[in-house]
Amino acid sequence: MIERLLPVAGSEHAVAFDAVLKSVHAHIAIQALAWGTFLVFCLIRFRSSRQPQASHRGIAPVLPMFAIAVVIVGDVVLLATMALPAWLARATMPSSVLAATEVRIAAEQFAWNIHYPGPDRRFGVTSAALISASNPVGIDRTSPDGTDDVGLLNVLMVPVGRPVVVQLSSRDVVHSFTLNEMRVRQDATPGLLVRTWFTPTITGQWQIACSQLCGLAHYRMRGEFSVLSQPGWDEWLRREVALIPPEAGLR
After folding, report:
1. Which of 145, 97, 100, 144 lies closest to 122, judged by CA?
2. Which domain-ending residue is among 38, 56, 91?
3. pLDDT tens, 35-77?
4. pTM value?
5. Burial letters for 129-149: b for 16+ Cβ neighbours within 10 Å, e otherwise?
6. N or C end: fewer C-beta atoms under 10 angstroms in the chain?
7. Same domain, 237 and 176
8. Number of domains in the chain
9. Are residues 196 and 92 in contact, defined by beta-carbon separation less than 8 angstroms?
């Protein structure tokens, strides 16, 4: 049932996160049912017709203590067996960064500036002085590693089946980089460079969202997010590199 209420699970860790979510909901539902039953019991047991004289003694504390103990044990079991292992797996970066696809994303009101390292897989130098409509990332084409870099606005393309490492920053206020289908949500904070990562397991087209209220036009801070096959992504990257004008320093 809960799968119908969630976006498609599109990454390796999405299944584990969804399992934690379902277990927490089941745990809370059991608690609600148990405490609701206890409330009904108290209403019947201590109704005025049966208990005309109020008494401070109430019932023996054994039942409430047992119920609280069950709640605590359930929380500990969920943390130890599901939540913490899922979090530790996400907190550990891929063992081989060489096998990962790396991108840099600079958030700003109200767009995502995305920097791809190009076929050489090395990021070139960037400068705020070079930022323009045709160069949203500010890539310095005269730097040795920047000649084949690709800078796009609100377009994130990644290959399926490979870890994707996102280097995330913000140019102005706090934003929250969100890929719902990948179960990724990471704040982008001014002055900080943070990393998040995921491994896509399915291809498709979705959206980049911002989950932090970042200004009056927060509602339109959306981007295109696509997961392609490896050959499809390689071909897309070649096309983007071919679009770099000769005067930019590539040819």
Report:
1. 145
2. 91
3. 888 889 888 887 877 777 777 776 677 777 887 888 888 889 9
4. 0.81
5. ebbeeebbbbbbbebebbbbb
6. N
7. yes
8. 2
9. no
